[in-house]
Write a structure and sequence with these properties.
The structure is a homooctamer. The first copy, chain A, is of the alpha/beta class. In chain A, 40% of the residues lie in helices and 18% in strands. Chain A has 11 helices and 11 strands. In chain A, helix 4 crosses helix 5 (86-92) and helix 6 (131-143) runs parallel beside helix 11 (235-245). Chains A, B, C, D, E, F, G, H: It comes from Anaerofilum hominis.
């Protein structure tokens, strides 16, 4: 409850339109719906006007379907379900109409919104193994109203593949750089473009890759300015963050 | 050299205005000035129209002054020198006119540009010990043409201090959250605002703070969406990144 | 054997009521029953008057049932079995009467004692995935004679959910804060309440959560005073510790 | 501002005793005094009635003296200054009357309060090198109104030293166990006593002690129930936490 | 080939009893039998006169049986097979006569030798979960000709259990201390006895036990003198090392 | 596109043989074939004249077979498929003629080239468990045109096994030292030979081997000069690197 | 107080030679002298009949001198002071007669005892930088009544240096292997000798040596049997442990 | 002593030219000169015919000068002294004629040999802070008879700087890639060239650079083939290794 609302509330009390008890109650009233196993924050949904997100990893298909149904009842147009396994997707799909994208392990309920961002978000990834995380990022961005361009398999060991797309990179409003192993992609792109680069380390690799730690450290130490980092394999976080950059009113 | 410049060059060759040898030479000509100990990239300076940055930590005062002088000769209006110790600042100041801000260990040559961003960048920090990093972030953002608001000493252990500034936080175009120890500030702010939060872990703390690792991990694992992270103590990186967010043409 | 018992023993020897050999024997006599695979410390059970605990993770269902039976024979009223899988619970249940709580993976033999603590223990958890650990803590506290209040899904990314329960938090004798990912919940609660906060990091999260390490470090570095920490996922330890705080004679 | 205060405020508005503008202002008024470099939370001071604490490590002697003076002006009886070097203490002492305890690096302004806790806090430490941290804990507890008993140099390698004090240990309301190296003291005491044990790992040791990490891990994995842990070398935190345990109204 | 053998060889050459070519060949002759997948060092077997050891973890049952058969052909009396799963044991048992001890995952071919050491080796373990590693150590010691005494479930959280066996501990020639979690057992025993303590950290525990790292660090930092450490879960190594201590001619 | 090609292109433009638009297009043309899920760099294949490599771990059998078929169409003589499981190999084998070597998990399409290197590459490994990695290295080297010699089971605990092959080691052009556990093999060989030693740590071991980290650190800290290191279990990388050393024109 | 002493005490009570109060007092009497800053365990000194040890690192010269004087008063013949800096040695030397060995940072008060062990202890070290730790080990062993042989600068990179001393190594009762960097010395010696090898990792090295961690891990993972490990740089611990091995009654 | 020498020795014995005692003595004679504090291996020096190396970090100036003098007496033409501080260099310079290169902390005694390698070694470094390590590598290579080319300040954040030198890179026999921070330089160069790349991580950077660990991991995980890695800051090791590659007879 911000200052303006507080003032309005107090004025109602001052004018006798609201009793003190009612005001106390209203100050305490929760802006979320409680389903028992989850509290749905409808304020956030309305505020953004785009997709609401369900983190699917720790929920049963029944819970996911119930949350989605509640959101639809509240008038939500687009619902994004992340970390959704094919098995769970099959079950959810029996209860709500679901567009499932297996590569990114993402389910979409409702239509994707029309892009309304300031520009385009480029999602670049190093190798084929990084594609699931890249897809999670790209689909998230699209569900939040962004135009995206995918540049996959442009790892730095074959620099010409990346340079072949220099123009697209340089015209982006934000770039999401997805890479495992040594994670150099973020630094190289960061040195080429003038827009923010959101780096996503992936757990791709073996041995001293340490489940994404090598890529994470590499990206945190990028010698290029204009690079920030999200958690290992957090494609959703990168897509969400890039969408904020790409919208004047995030 | 981008596509447009390549085309122009080729057209000059086609029109006989440029010999093949000259073209080869030009294609190889380096867009930076070589001072022996450093290569200054004037392209980047011109492209951004705002401040050029000198990383002061690994350079002698004489080197810093020489680089700054070269930049001024190229017409640079504002030069930001980061990680500048008071001793080095005193020496640099004998050779170029320097505005030194000790808290953020930053020296400024020339005038700060007028803010021309989309909105305001809020720089919030947890404790007094985090202030040097916060100042580095704030001054960097200002040198790159941003209006800033500093909210210092608003750590989560005294939540009322942070909530007292909710309005300012919610009206920001980007928030830079600077915190050491457990780094919870980023998550709490990330849950309150709707704009991108750039988190800067600091090396403040002792014992299991591990020189900023605890805060770094905390920020990478933020349960709030819309948070990305830069390196420990990298106030400059956060200011630079937030400035990109705050400018349509970064 | 404490000083008073030693004195009594010596007096019996001095009075000729006890031979030297018997005294030596008694000094060596073990205050525990040996089942072959485990030694049951009946002193501890009697001393506390409340529940005896069986750590179920490393024992077979038969061993668990045998230990519980031996405890019941000694007159134990309540027995708490932690880390008990549904499969093992089913098997144990065929041998002793068992109240199994699946969420917290806890089995209870006998009735829960009436609360006799100084106040109430609040168990707060960040997300739905943290609930198993939170339940282990809450059930442990209840089995040890405490009134508890559960506040689940009050993570710091939605601060209003937590603040809606400020009154309950502030009236607690102790708070158990259960959180994974960045573990900020402990710090935020620590800054709000004036009672001890026992923090339990959970292994919830992925990537740089490192199986609970991020939350553990975050909690150890809490900027709020009055926070101490137990091992990752150690809900039992937190419930036990909070119960000690909540009892004059722990 | 808690619920009762909110209600009182609203009633004043309803009764016309307070204008809406004044109410808004009051809701925003910060319950702390701003000295520029630090915000002093007087609410907290009044609430606890005992000592206010200044963390000395990151402040100049002038800042420390200024904060202490402000606290005294507010009527604070006892002020505890932690992590205060002898040099800083000498300087602070020229501005406020200071009782400096070098071993624990603690300065005390005003008189120590009379103990008013439920029982006694025992501070046990492993070796002579752990004494500074143990003293920080003991002095903190005393400044917060607790009777303490120091048992130093009772490391587990000479078990008879510890067992010689079994009676004192068993009669404590809380034990603070301070140990570096392998940190086994916490487990051994935890197995002997029935009150809460607050374990403080210290950075004492070399090689694979890793600045306290070995002791920290050892304490987190204590096989004894009733042990919780604070940060490495955090004697203050342990004293503060134990004091909360030892006071009905912490 | 030691100095004495070299001299004998050279004297044979000098006396014309051996040609130069034969001598070169003999100097190169390998003292081991090559089975293709493994080289068996018969010198070592003969030298020690006791058990030969086969590390079972990385070999197929057929390979194990073949190696054992070759050893028997060479006259080996006792063969110890470590890290042998019940499944593999069943298969090996169809080819050679095998005494399988499941708890320690050890198979024995031939008879255990009569103890011929200087004294007795005590194997102490902290909890029931540590028993497999303790058994591996005890059986290894027995196979190498040592009398052993097992003291299991004597963890430091119930000190009286350990102290009840003080006499046995103090009369040992060497103690093997096996413990997971915080590994304090090694320090406590090391402070009680005057013989060498070989500490074996186990991977028992969860969370911050980090698969035995906490116990390992704890043991390396033991504040008691006379403690040395082997790898996590390396019961065999501890039994072997203790046997060397217990034999004048190891 | 190197300098010479650039000059040729420009000359064609200058001579009117190529329009500006065509030249721009050609400068952007990619030197690789795009199969949708992978981009094949035929330049690299032609340049080296030997085997092309497919990293099998992250590809489906169908993808592997399709890539191999495309390579064969381009005239590739030898194709090496690494990290190929027996199951995948069986499937790939139904589509292309495949020589599968299970120990090294490598599939070969086409004939192995005749060795054309400067000398011989010796592949030495510590224990039988290291053999899969050693085989990956040896087969890679052979596929790239090198003569190899395998010295397996020559770990430093039985130094005589290694010294028996001193002559072969000293006559190598490069040695690949493959070892897990403590990884001492690289240092010992590095001290014996005068050629480059490429060290491959393996994930063989348990406990404090930490999945190859112990061997990795050991090898990086080799006290012998002339040792460099590749990633844990990276037999392919070592074979590739050694082949470069063994060819004047790598 | 062991069983025999307890019996004697009880018999005195039974015979009326000792009152109950006196017995209680005696049972509580500490077998150590309390100097305020340290408790001296005279029992241990008498028990071993050889040198008593003072850990010098954390004590002032005055404290060290006072402890040594108290020990001399109790009749101690030899006192070993470890981790004694040259500056502290100079000061201690003004108060007690001190034989200071700078290389091993050890001071000796009184005469070294005559060797009375079962055999000889060989102290081998890898490089010249490891010599201080090796000297600490060797002098400790000598002060505890052992004959020693030093083999320094026999690192595995020059294997011939080590092999030149094979005979001395093979005739030792115990070998102390001191090495930094990759720590391979322990494995190589462990493979050559049949006596126990006590490995001491040193903090010698840089970069990925991580202050001795690389050597520590290497030694813990030794592929040779019969190797155990002490803390990084713990020469004293190795000397003490090897002395126990070398004495029937340690 | 290799096989040929052994045969010659044995033939002398067979021919009566050498007594058995003399032969035994000779077999044991050490191929190095013992200066007390160091053993100089003259065999190695003669074998390589180029520079002998003294690791200066752990030696006193007097020791360094003595070793150098002994080497000169043996006829060594070039002596390389690494890790030599300016202060030590000044002192050494008073005893032997020394050419000191401060940037690389290297001293050279005697003349640099004429290059006799197969090709040229390129030393590329990321930033100015990496130059000391790069110089150590370059000077080492030159002292071992290699032609070198230095490409400094060619970090991947300004890719055009690196691409401007593509021709030099592609014509190298080996490239040494020196980089701190994220260490991406090795991968990018590895993708551009066809010769072996020896990667040297440096300790340049701050925060999550962890003293070179980030760069080390990045390089170990390089997605480009043909990259191997040496220890952090080990310029000498890289120069030595590259020289071996560049010489048929290393």
């Amino acid at each position: 409850m911000d200052k303006k609302e507080t003032r309005a509330l107090l004025e109602q009390v001052a004018q006798g339109k609201l009793t003190v008890d009612e005001a106390v109650l209203r100050l305490k009233r929760q802006p979320f719906e409680d389903l028992g196993f989850a509290k749905i924050d409808h304020h956030r949904a309305l505020r953004q006007g785009v997709a609401e997100v369900i983190y699917g990893a720790s929920k049963t298909p029944d819970q996911i379907a119930a949350i989605a149904a509640a959101m639809l009842r509240q008038g939500q147009q687009t619902i994004l379900i992340t970390r959704l396994s094919p098995e769970a997707a099959a079950q959810v799909g029996t209860q709500v109409k679901l567009d499932y994208r297996e590569m990114g392990r993402i389910g979409i309920v409702g239509a994707l919104p029309r892009p309304d961002g300031l520009g385009r978000i480029v999602v670049a990834s190093g190798g084929t193994s990084d594609m699931p995380v890249a897809e999670e990022a790209a689909l998230t961005a699209e569900a939040l109203g962004n135009e995206t361009l995918r540049l996959y398999d442009v790892g730095v060991a074959g620099l010409e593949r990346l340079l072949a797309h220099l123009e697209e990179l340089m015209s982006a409003r934000a770039v999401i750089a997805v890479a495992g192993m040594e994670g150099a992609l973020a630094s190289v792109i960061g040195g080429l473009v003038d827009c923010p680069v959101v780096a996503v380390p992936t757990s791709v690799g073996y041995g001293a890759a340490f489940g994404g730690v090598a890529a994470l450290l590499s990206m945190l130490n990028s010698c290029a300015s204009g690079v920030s980092v999200v958690n290992i394999d957090n494609g959703f976080g990168a897509g969400y963050f890039a969408s904020m950059i790409n919208h004047r009113e995030a």
